What does this fold into?
Amino acid sequence: MTEEIIIAGFGGQGVLSMGKILAYSGIMQDQEVSWMPSYGPEMRGGTANVTVIVSDERISSPTLTRYDTAIILNQQSMDKFEETVKPGGILLYDPNGITHHPTRKDISIYKIEGAKLAASMGNTKIFNMVVLGAYIKVKPIVKLDNVIKGLKKSLPFRYHKLIPLNTEAITMGMENVDQIN
Amino acid sequence: MGELKLMKGNEALAEAAIRAGADAYFGYPITPQSEVIEYLMSEKPEERTGMVVLQAESEVASINMLYGAGGTGKKVMTSSSSPGISLMQEGLSYIAGAEIPCVVANVVRGGPGLGDIQPAQSDYFQAVKGGGHGDYRLIVLAPSSVQEMSDFVPLSFDLAFKYRTPVMIISDGLIGQMMEKVELFDQMDRLTDEEVIEKYPWATNGKPVGKERRILTSLDLDPHKLEKHNHHLQAKYREIEEKEVLSETLHCDDAEYIMVAYGSSARIAQKTIQLAREEGIKVGLIRPITLWPYPKKEIEKYVQKGIKGFLSVEMSMGQMVEDIRLVVEGRTKVEHFGRVGGVIHSPEEVLEALKQKLIGG
It folds into this structure.
């Protein structure tokens, strides 16, 4: 199994940390992982994306041009990455702020109201965990237990009190993802 | 099994310096390797092992601190990125001339000049042909994973002390900034002052009564003596070429064409192999791990086997390709492909280049 994922959105949405938690989850179940951010002179509000690969085998290129799954969190990223999903692959997106919805017929398209759900839970910062929950529901490459272990590994100890809230957000995402094609 | 962590390449390098029992790190921040000094500062290695971490006032200061501290027989290290490494070249030449062990990591960025902060491999010539003056060599190791960013630190210290020579670890923004799973090796002890004195009779750590004064210098105004010193250095370099070459080959057994790539390009080339083989193109990869000494024998082996052509894949305008051509001497085709200026070539682009330049599409 090799899963090649691009997660793309605005800086500050938690794109990079979502990728990091996913990568840590892979390690927790003995898989090979890579996490490659698009880094540059970027800042909050600019675009941010990260390529995450989880595999049973040694990982070749950590940077890619085509992906099994694209997780898209803003319009710029939709414009850039919809075309990069492999035929038969998955596109998961949050419709918040999306004006041109995805149109491809050869991939499975799912939506998650991440921003709305996070707001309804009273904490917009857990948005990325709602989206992560939606992803692992659609593509269960990592087990929920391992995601929680991954969270513990990637959060500094002083934030461990937030793990129940994050777990709740992941569950919220798992329960509210819809296939739209 | 050692501790498993998800780390950036730069962080793994820094953690490995502490665990390898380094005595000191001197450095000056520059993207894309500032995580090295940031990580070292946050880890407080002075509490963990007694290791000194100091932010120098410039790269010139860092390399000369290495010269001084390394001369006392201590395990010392610095890191920088391309423009900073250029500033260190005078010091590196002195250190090589005075035969002082040390480790220098270069997380290469796009050039020339100030360039940009994205990954590149355009410092190959500087690293392997000698960026400073005089007849000297650096042992140059090229990690292609976060694991190797960690593992090559103790290896570099071992080589540096075995041959009393500076060792360079050359990576780039891609290897430095990405995170991967890394298995950390166990903490090694730092040598005590007594052990250093006992182990390194050349080190300038105080003149013992009744023994000769030890001098570490690259200056000798007597041309005959300096010529002799140069012959001594060259004999050491020949021994390194004989004993310390490292490389990896992948899918070369049945290959008709071979890509040669190191570091991050070697990772991309592995994906290209997969894409090519799905199309029935038999291609393999030779990955030089030591860029100097260069794996000439490995390349020669495949020339002898009648390989149809080599493609040097590097994020430069064609530097390592010259070393392949020196081995091949016109007996088969040797071509180059690479994006530059911080642009990372895609596996698909490499496959296209393979078809265009070697297979004749």
User: Anything to note?
Assistant: The helical segments of chain A are 15-28, 75-81, 114-120, 127-138, 144-154, 163-175.
